[in-house]
Amino acid sequence: MQPIRRNLPQLLGDARRWFEEGLLAALEAAGATPVSPTQAQLFAVLDDQGTTVSELARRMAVTRQTAHQAVHGLVAAGLLEQIPDPASARQRLIRRTRDGERAHRQAGLILERLEEQLAQRISRETVDALRTALEAPWGRPPSPSPE
Fold this sequence. Notes:
Blueprint: H1 8-29, H2 37-45, H3 53-60, H4 64-76, E1 80-85, E2 88-96, H5 98-122, H6 124-135
Antiparallel strand pairs: 1-2
């Protein structure tokens, strides 16, 4: 029986999990504050000047409640803080604390090492080609054609 050919979104999801698992394992080995995959993703989409929970949820493609729970866990861990939004009296911005900035820099260095390890496994040329393809503008997703 022929193995089922996996589609590109499945392969991209596996690639993302490879980096995510490597990142979380390295952070744990370094004694960093444990975070969930959702919390790690939130860190990746957070603006330096702060971001609203609604915007974080949109960027992460999760519900506002999921983003809110991730924020609360990271606030409790001392990695994020909430501050008033100068543009809106009703909203609050989420931003990294000093410890959160340190953890964010540490995660960036770990991800660079993981990319180097991947290049050793599949070649620098392949990793560079993958990066080029993913950084290219893809445009908006095609709209369904009427049948």
